[in-house]
Protein backbone atom coordinates (compact mmCIF):
# COMPACT_ATOMS: atom_id res chain seq x y z
CA UNK A 1 0.00 0.00 0.00
CA UNK A 2 2.77 2.45 0.91
CA UNK A 3 4.66 1.71 -2.31
CA UNK A 4 1.59 2.61 -4.37
CA UNK A 5 1.33 5.91 -2.54
CA UNK A 6 5.05 6.55 -3.09
CA UNK A 7 4.73 5.72 -6.79
CA UNK A 8 1.68 7.95 -7.04
CA UNK A 9 3.56 10.86 -5.49
CA UNK A 10 6.52 10.32 -7.82
CA UNK A 11 4.18 10.18 -10.81
CA UNK A 12 2.36 13.31 -9.63
CA UNK A 13 5.70 15.09 -9.22
CA UNK A 14 6.71 14.10 -12.76
CA UNK A 15 3.42 15.34 -14.18
CA UNK A 16 3.83 18.68 -12.38
CA UNK A 17 7.42 18.91 -13.65
CA UNK A 18 6.36 18.22 -17.25
CA UNK A 19 3.57 20.78 -17.00
CA UNK A 20 6.04 23.34 -15.70
CA UNK A 21 8.63 22.61 -18.42
CA UNK A 22 6.28 22.70 -21.45
CA UNK A 23 5.76 26.51 -21.46
CA UNK A 24 9.50 27.03 -21.06
CA UNK A 25 10.20 24.86 -24.10
CA UNK A 26 7.69 26.90 -26.10
CA UNK A 27 9.41 30.12 -25.09
CA UNK A 28 12.82 28.75 -26.07
CA UNK A 29 11.66 28.46 -29.68
CA UNK A 30 10.49 32.07 -29.71
CA UNK A 31 13.72 33.20 -28.06
CA UNK A 32 15.76 31.34 -30.69
CA UNK A 33 13.83 33.01 -33.52
CA UNK A 34 14.25 36.41 -31.87
CA UNK A 35 18.00 35.82 -31.48
CA UNK A 36 18.32 34.87 -35.15
CA UNK A 37 16.40 38.00 -36.16
CA UNK A 38 18.69 40.15 -34.03
CA UNK A 39 21.76 38.54 -35.61
CA UNK A 40 20.43 39.33 -39.09
CA UNK A 41 19.74 42.92 -38.05
CA UNK A 42 23.24 43.20 -36.61
CA UNK A 43 24.71 41.97 -39.90
CA UNK A 44 22.63 44.57 -41.78
CA UNK A 45 23.79 47.32 -39.41
CA UNK A 46 27.43 46.33 -39.86
CA UNK A 47 26.97 46.34 -43.63
CA UNK A 48 25.37 49.80 -43.49
CA UNK A 49 28.17 51.06 -41.26
CA UNK A 50 30.71 49.91 -43.84
CA UNK A 51 28.78 51.62 -46.62
CA UNK A 52 28.51 54.82 -44.57
CA UNK A 53 32.26 54.80 -43.90
CA UNK A 54 32.96 54.31 -47.60
CA UNK A 55 30.61 57.15 -48.48
CA UNK A 56 32.24 59.41 -45.91
CA UNK A 57 35.67 58.67 -47.40
CA UNK A 58 34.38 59.65 -50.85
CA UNK A 59 32.66 62.83 -49.58
CA UNK A 60 35.61 64.27 -47.65
CA UNK A 61 37.66 65.14 -50.76
CA UNK A 62 34.55 66.64 -52.36
CA UNK A 63 34.04 68.90 -49.33
CA UNK A 64 37.59 70.12 -49.73
CA UNK A 65 36.90 70.91 -53.39
CA UNK A 66 33.69 72.75 -52.45
CA UNK A 67 35.56 74.88 -49.90
CA UNK A 68 38.19 75.74 -52.52
CA UNK A 69 35.48 76.66 -55.04
CA UNK A 70 33.72 78.85 -52.46
CA UNK A 71 36.96 80.70 -51.69
CA UNK A 72 37.61 81.26 -55.40
CA UNK A 73 34.05 82.50 -55.90
CA UNK A 74 34.48 84.92 -53.00
CA UNK A 75 37.69 86.25 -54.55
CA UNK A 76 35.99 86.66 -57.95
CA UNK A 77 33.00 88.44 -56.38
CA UNK A 78 35.31 90.71 -54.41
CA UNK A 79 37.14 91.67 -57.61
CA UNK A 80 33.82 92.55 -59.27
CA UNK A 81 32.92 94.77 -56.33
CA UNK A 82 30.04 92.77 -54.91
Explain this structure to me?
The chain is 96% helix and 0% strand. It has one helix spanning 2-80. The termini are far apart. 0% of the residues are buried.
List keywords for this structure.
mainly alpha; 96% helix; single chain; 0% strand; 82 residues; 1 helix
Nutshell version of this structure?
With 82 residues, this protein is mainly alpha-helical. It has one helix at residues 2-80.
Shape: rod-shaped
The overall average pLDDT, rounded, is: 92
Radius of gyration: 35 Å
Helix content: over 70%
How many helix segments?
A: 1
Structural class: mainly alpha
Uncertain segments: none
Order of helices and strands: H
The first-to-last residue Cα distance is 112 Å
